[in-house]
Amino acid sequence: MVTALWWIRRDLRLSDNQALTAALRAAEQVVPVFVLDPRLWRSPYVGARRLAFLIGGLQALDTALRARGSALILRAGEPATALAALIAETGAQAIYAEADVSPYARQRDAQVAAALPLQLTAGVTVHPPGSILKRDGTPYTIFTPFSRAWLALPLPTAAELLPAPEHISTPLGLSSVPWPDLPPPEPAFPPGESAAQRRLTAFTTSAIYHYAEQRDRMAEEGTSRLSPYLRFGMLSARQAVVAALNARAAAATPAEAAGAATWLNELLWREFYAHILYHFPQVRRESFRPALRAVAWENDPHRFAAWCTGRTGYPIVDAGIRQLLATGWLHNRARMIVASFLTKDLLVDWRWGERFFMQQLLDGDPAANNGGWQWAAGTGTDAAPYFRIFNPVLQGEKFDPTGDYIRRWVPELARVPRPYLHRPWTMPEPVQQAAGCHIGRDYPAPVVDHARARERALAAYKSPVRSDAL
Question: I need a labelling partner for 266 at 20 to 30 A (CA). Which of 68, 175, 391, 438 fits?
Answer without folding.
Answer: 391
